[in-house]
Amino acid sequence: MSREAPESLSGAQIVVRLLERQGIRTLAGIPGGAILPIYDALSASELIHHVLARHEQGGGFMAQGMARATGLPAVCMASSGPGATNLLTAIADAKLDSIPLVAITGQVPRAMIGTDAFQEVDTYGLSIPITKHNFLVGSAEELLQVIPRAFRIAASGRPGPVLVDIPKDVQNQVIEVADWPAPGCADPLPPPAADLIARAAAMINEAVRPILYLGGGVVHSGAAVAAVALAEKASLPTVMTLMALGAMPVDHQLSLGMLGMHGARCTNLALDECDLLIAVGARFDDRATGKVAGFCPQAKIVHIDIDPSELDKIKTAHVGIAGDVGAVLQLLLPAVAGALRVDWLARVAHLKAEHPLRTPGIDDPRSPYGLIRAVADCLDDEATITTDVGQHQMWVAQAYPLRRPRQWLTSGGLGTMGFGMPAAIGAALAEPQRTVVCFSGDGSILMNIQELVTAAEEGVNVKIVLMNNSSLGLVFQQQTLFYGERIYASKFKGMPDFVRVAEGFGVPAIDLDGASDPRAALAAALSTRGPMLIHARIEMREQVLPMVPPGAANKDMIGG
Amino acid sequence: MNSLTRTENQALARAVLELDVNNHAGVMSHVVGLFSRRAYNVEAILVMPVGGGQTSRIWLLVNEDERLEQMVKQVEKLEDVLAVRRHGTEHEVFVRLEEFFR
Ligand SMILES: Cc1ncc(C[n+]2csc(CCOP(=O)(O)OP(=O)(O)O)c2C)c(N)n1
Ligand SMILES: [Mg+2]
Fold first, then answer.
1. If contacts are CB pairs under 8 Å, which of residues 11-50 in chain B contact chain A?
2. Smallest Cα–Cα separation from A29: which of A45, A51, A10, A6?
């Protein structure tokens, strides 16, 4: 607590002051009746820049973009009722990808709760299963505890979203405040158990064909450097989940890239042969493992995770270590013997040579891989890459040379179409010095297209590369492969003119299809500051390969 | 409840979970939501405030199955759950309560 001259403040003013003290400088949201006192107080803040989203889900994803880019909790706001329900998808998305988010919603006055008042919805009840924790605030006094606690919970241990629902009368209630609580920050964690570290090190030292399996927790923990150091010291071929891309540079000698449903053949085949799997901040998601019984069938498992409930959830670990993965890796590193593993690395190199990721068209900027590579050729590792969800997302995950943790922002667990563009806006707001590229699809972009005007209004340095295959491509691909080519509800008949749509929202746009030199057009577009939409047509029948059929073991990939 | 007969039910292995929780509206929802989303039936529930009423104790009677370990870990993660203790069916809390259900 810090003591200052007592002031008479409303709950709304207290919220704003606590956010300022928390270090929040940018937040996104949409006002409405039940949150107007907070907006009124925000209007007086000289520190906080409020970004007006055009749909609460967009605001939620902007906050996610800020949080994913920086690792710090970010804030979104919505009014009661429809404002709150519109926010739910972005909150659920944050829960599944462990993103620290503080969502603040207005609620009808306490006396009206439970009366089906105008724009009353049970936000508390709705948000229980999709938040790490949630609050319905009962008084202005309580805000002094709840707001810092919300940030502490969001940031502590395994990060996640916290929702704070504040009735309007609580926002208007005036109290005397003399003591201010310290800002909420992540709790320190107990050190990992030394005996388990020793056992894990012994298993790594004894292993003949070990593989290091990195998950999003490595990025959240800031442990990428330690993970790469461990891989190098012990000569561990390394696979990454979708969430971990960037933790080890893809072109690192030991990198096998992404595993799982759209991983390269060599990656999934190496996993099939490994005798030890060292899972770090990864949760054995079904898109990564395929049929669990067929995942690393010969391997013993060392599993390191900050969340004890992840240990033994899907696969029983021979050694399970609960702890911050960065701290565990720091202890593991000196305990692990340096090793060359000549035979195993030669075997992995052989698999890589025999079954590499095939990227047809990589030199043709009018093909999916080629377009992605051409974009990458215009940028350096300082650029941030976001995606929507679909084929384009998987092509980028496979082919973009990601080399930096937090370079890659994608909706992994929930797989939410509509994530990419608002998340890119958030990332650009948080780190204005970077170029932020959002790879999107013609289906996904429409799910939060309204945020183009937010991008224009804020002048963010966001480039949307729209890979237009006139279809819900990933659905089209599944119907082609697994539903007897019965294409239904996945081919668009009506198609907007995306260039004009963007221009209509105030965002300049170019069409690569008409460009005589698409590389030059890309280079020019990507080097101009400010928002821009880059439209590129993609052949509808292009597929993401290889692909593990849903429910199959990873070694039974098709294609690629 | 479920479609098992009373005798079948008794034949199943049971566990009693004892939770110390903060006593405020919403805690029960958080706890039972973890079970309902997994279609994991809670056979019996008992809650009483303890001490000055700042905290409560929740007793849950559940069937033992392979998910119970995971359930306990999930319950432990809840912000308002202070402690979880696991007992076998020999625990008397629900046996004594049966009197009220005659
Ligand atoms: C909100 C939401 N609705 C539905 C889906 C199911 N889904 C996954 S990918 C996909 C198609 C995406 O189409 P598009 O954005 O054009 O990407 P493409 O696959 O064509 O590259 C759909 C409908 C989803 N992931 N998210
Ligand atoms: Mg498409």
1. 25-26, 29-30, 33, 37
2. A51
